[in-house]
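[job 4471] stage=fold_predict status=RUNNING
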Amino acid sequence: MAPYESDHATGTGPDEDPRTGRRKAARYVVPVAVVGVAAATIGLVPALAASGDPDLPKISAQQLVEKIAKSDVQRMSGTVKVSTDLGLPDLGSLQGTMGSGEQGDGSSADPRTKLTELTSGTHTLRVAADGPEKQKVSLLERDAEYSLIHSGKDVWGYDSASNEVFHTTAQHSGEQGDKRGHQPSATPDDFAKEALKSVDGTTSVTVDGTTRIAGRDAYQLVIKPKQAGSTVRDVTIGVDAKTGLPLKFTLAPKSGGAPVFDAGFTKVSFAAPPASTFDFRPPKGAKVTEEKPGKDEHAPDFGGQFAPGDLSGADTIGEGWTTIAKFDTGAKGDKSSQQGGAMGGFLGSLGDPVSGDFGKGTVFSTRLVNALITDDGTVYAGAVTKNALVKAADADK
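[job 4471] inference complete, writing structure tokens
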């Protein structure tokens, strides 16, 4: 079977410097689920679905990927359970410190602040969509609820705990953009698309049996890196057998244990949600914060507000699953620990000192993403091992 090729061919592209072999990432995103998956084509290993329950027609990996690509679910609603375990300590005691900066003066209903809660622990989301102009994501908490609603040109965020409202105008991807780009970016579908659109011949993609997800028959697509040095063991995507919509996304670390990230529907319906689902008016007495897109480059975009860690303009070193982002913090010498105050000291206590041809620095580790911060303020980060970061820094000098 010939490998499945994406629109991006391997080799030197318009954003690659032929003298250094590095690519300038126009939008290097470090989502919790798919960090390090940054190559250009898909090399599919021919594989057929194994027997299992339910008993579905056999399908090859290439056919299943094509089924996902052709999926065009415009109307749906359901409940999604999201669990993230990066192995980070509880930062609850530092919330006051972290919120005392520029973001501290913003609205608690701002999705840039509220939805960072998804980066740790287990959460329940309610999602709904009715075409490209109407989506809603609600983060359900014990005593409160946070909702992000896109209805036509309006985007509303509402935090019931503080009775605060955030309002802006929807960012559109343009006529040539993905017509599904405005659907809620918190479902397994979104994470699966991120994983599939940029893997290459360094990747094994196979079908591994069938399963049942949210009461529906599904195939299991497994993506595994072939490269040494990646911290990712595999990504498993549960694909609805009828619609091709990814219903579950699981990322497992090479170190073993619980998944680093798991997002899956527990309930799903493909009927049109009631029109009232997308209606919103600020409650009486609510504090409303207005923001005008265009003046703030970080204004909410329904195509990417759930992908924290946007490192726009970063250089990338390597390829495939061992891609490393490089950027300059501007903090030279020992300034980084001073600038961060209590936060800087806390982070410093978590890191491991390292040295090499590049000089000295500190490696901060999670179960998936590792980052090397050198004493001259350069950062190397990716879903790679500590040794891979040190080697990249050495070779960069």
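[job 4471] summary: The helical segments are 61-70, 95-98, 111-114, 188-196, 335-339, 341-350, 386-396.
[job 4471] exit 0
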